[in-house]
Amino acid sequence: MMVELVAIVLIMIISSLPGLVPEAASTPPDVYMVKPNCTDFKCGDFTIPYPFGMGKGCYSSDWFSIYCNPSSDPHKPFLNHTSGLNLQVLHISLDYLTVTVNSPISSLCNNFSSTDGKKNETKASNSNSIDLNGTPFRFSDEDNIFMVLGCGSAVLLNQSRGVVAGCGSLCPSGFVYAKDCFGVDCCQSTINSYTSYALNNYSVNFTTEVNEKGCMAHALLVDRQWFHSNFSSQPVIETGYAPLSLSWSMFNIHNECGCRMGTEGNPFLKNGCRGARLSSQGCNR
Prior knowledge:
The protein is mainly β and 285 residues long. The chain is built from three helices and 19 strands. The protein has helices spanning 2-16, 224-230, 233-239, and strands spanning 42-43, 46-47, 66-69, 76-79, 87-93, 98-104, 106-110, 121-128, 137-139, 144-150, 152-157, 163-169, 186-189, 203-210, 214-223, 241-248, 264-265, 273-274, 278-279. A six-stranded antiparallel β-sheet has the order 3-4-5-6-16-9. The chain has a four-stranded antiparallel β-sheet with strand order 7-15-10-13. A four-stranded antiparallel β-sheet has the order 8-14-11-12, with no helix packed on it.
C-alpha cells in the first residue's frame, strides 16, 4: 500500500514539472505564424504562415508569395500568382515542409469513335507536367502516389526519361467512374524515390486501345493522404484537377528545424517558438 502511494506521489510530481511530459497538440494562434506587422494573413478561412505570405515583406521570397483570389466565396489562396505557377493552395505544413496544391491532371482523349473502324487500335500520347525548375519546390515522392483513371496504362518519366512510376487499368464494362482503385477503372503505384529525386518536372506516356470517342484515360500524381480519405474519380475527371503535394526548401536554412517540446509557433520566424517563456530555438539560419 505504501509503495503504491509513493508511486502515485512521484507521478504527480513528475507530471507537474514543465517540459518533462509532452503537451497535447494544439493549434498556435494565427499571430504566432506570421511576421510581425503583417496583418493581412487570412484568405477566406485559410491562415498563411511564414515563409509564405501576402504583401511585400511578409514572405521570404517571391516564390512564397500568396495571391488571395476574391472571385470565389470563400476566397481562395493561390501560390506564386505572378510567376506562372498560379496553383490553388489547399494546405501548408511547416512540420513536413510541404504545400498541397490543386494541380492539373493529364488526359488522353480520342476524337473519333469505334464506328470509324478503328476499334482496338493502340494509341499512345505524351503529356507534360507543370515545370518547377528554378523554384524552391519539388514533387514529393513520399507524399504522392501515381494513378491512372479510366482505360489504359501510363508511365511517369523524369527529366532524363527514367521511369518513376507506372500502372495499367482495365475497363471490362467500358469507362465508369471509380470509387476505389484496385486495377479495374483505376490503378495506383508508389513512386521510385531514386528516379524521382529532386523531381521538378515530369512527362506522362499513355497507351490505350481506342474504342470510343472522348477521354479514355487520365493520369495524375496525387497526395497520398487525400487519396486514402477522399478519393472518387468523378470530381477529379470533371474538374481536371487533383490535390498534389510539393516539398519546399529555403536556401538559407537547414531543412531540419522545429519548435522545442513545450513551445509552439513558427520556427521560421525569429523568436517564433513560444511557450511558458519566449524561445529563440527554431530553424538554423
